[in-house]
Structure formats: C-alpha cells, structure tokens
Amino acid sequence: EIVLTQSPGTLSLSPGERATLSCRASQSVGSSYLAWYQQKPGLAPRLLIYGAFSRATGIPDRFSGSGSGTDFTLTISRLEPEDFAVYYCQQYGWSPFTFGLGTKLEIK
Amino acid sequence: EVQLLESGGGLVQPGGSLRLSCAASGFTLRSYAMSWVRQAPGRGLEWVSGISSRGLNTYYADSVKGRFTISRDNSNDTLYLQMNSLRAEDAALYYCVKGADSWNIDFFDYWGQGTLLTVSS
Q1: How would you classify the pairing of strands A4-7 and A19-25?
Q2: Looking at CA atoms only, how far is residue A102 from chain B in angstroms?
Q3: How many CB atoms lie within 10 A of CB B88?
Q4: What are residue A74's DSSP bridge partners?
Q5: How far apart are CA B2 and CA B26, in angstroms?
Q6: B107/A47 CB distance under 8 A
Q7: A16 C-beta neighbours (distance < 10 Å), count
Q8: Per-residue pLDDT in tens (0 to 9) along chain A, 108 residues
Q9: B-chain residues near A37 (CB < 8 A)
Q10: A23 Cβ partners below 8 Å, 6+ apart?
Q11: Comparing C-alpha atoms, which of B65, B96, B89, B70 is closest to residue B81?
Q12: CA-CA distance, B98 to A97, in Å (whole number)?
C-alpha cells in the first residue's frame, strides 16, 4: 500500500499570503496519478487538482499543483477567506487508492 | 447536473449487515468507474472500494476485503455497497464518488453528500 504523508498537519496563514502544502508518497505513484481535494466543515470534498497539476473544472487559477514520482505540492498563490479548509492528496496509480491524512489550513 | 444520492445508512449492531445505495443522475453511469469513500467522525478520508464501468473489475481496501461487496446496476443508475460482518471501526460517513474514467478507478470528480453508518450494540 502506498502511504501518503502530508505536511504540515496544520498551516496557519493570513488572507493574501501564499500557501504551500506537501504530499510525499512512500513509493512512486506512477505517471503523476495524484489528486488534491478541498473539504470544508460539513461538506463533501471537492476535486481541485488531478494528474498532479491539472485544475478541475471551475477551480480558480490561484490553485496550482506540481511534482511527480513521490513528491507533490499544492500551492495557493494568494489566500482568499474561502480557502481555509482541509486539503487531502490522493494517489490513484495503485490499488488501494490511498489518501493522505490531510493538511488543515487555518486563519492566522 | 451530476447528482449522487446515497441512502441505506443507519444503526447496526457489530457483526450485522447493511446495504448502501447510490442513485446517480445527470450523467451516464455505465460510462464511468465508481467508488465508495468513507470518513469516520473527525477523521480523514479512506477509499473503501471501486468498480469499473461495466462491473467487470472490483477493488477493495484491505480493511474491508472479504466483508464488503461493491456492485452496480447500470440499467437503474444505481451503485451498491453490501457490508457484512460490520465492526465498530466501519462506522463512518460513506460517500458515493464518481470516477473520471470508465475502466480505471482514477480520481473522483463528483461526490455525494454521504450516508452515515453507526455500528454499536
């Protein structure tokens, strides 16, 4: 099973700042089979990024993904108030299709 | 508009069984792989099981293998999860999720709102 380690566990930033979230896989997830999701309290997760760097439909361009192999990054260029949430990475290269434990992005 | 409506959750005793359903609309269910993802209260996401578009391939997390069975009825636009030998650790909100591909499990572009399973005596 591929284990995804997300860091930091909690990130405290202010609106307007840049956020950098990390996701490291215990082995290569193949040809960038890595997705990012955003979850707000009481709501279902929402797809942000797939294929490591492709934005899902309707996702603002302040969200960007990068990386390959075992190291991936989600960057939010300038935080908006609605961006404060929990972010999960997920690999879909190998079954079981695992998620990371999440990074909570909170307002400083 | 894509909609995924889960049902079937509830309270069940340890060792019991339950079947979850997911009614899909707004897209052609038979064209996409589907999965179930669960989230225990206050915890992260856990992929549980997936099934290819025509049901020929099924996949399971080790934690549920041999106890859960995923299936689908494309003629009725419905996804199922049969859960047997339930344990306390299976208690969670179960999401029905749509894959972006027909054959591979892939990433999940649409999520339902979830149905809650409680396992307790």
Answers
A1: antiparallel
A2: 7
A3: 10
A4: A21, A65
A5: 4
A6: yes
A7: 10
A8: 999 999 999 999 999 999 999 999 999 997 689 999 999 999 999 999 999 999 999 999 999 999 999 999 999 999 999 999 999 999 999 989 999 999 999 999
A9: 45, 108
A10: A4, A5, A6, A34, A36, A67, A71, A72, A73, A74, A89, A100
A11: B70
A12: 14
pLDDT at B45: 98
Interface of B with A (CB under 8 A): 35, 37, 44-47, 50, 59-62, 95, 100, 104-114
Is the distance from CB of A75 to CB of A19 less than 8 angstroms?
yes
Distance CA A51, CA B87 (A): 35
Nearest residue to B77 (alpha-carbon basis) of B14, B115, B16, B31: B31
Residues of B in contact with A33 (CB under 8 A): 107
Q: Compute the nearest-CA separation of B45 from chain A (Å).
A: 6
Q: Are A50 and B107 contacting, i.e. CB atoms less than 8 angstroms apart?
A: yes
Here the tokens at position B120 are: 């307790």
What amino acid is encoded at B35 in this protein? S
Token readout for B74 is 């494309």
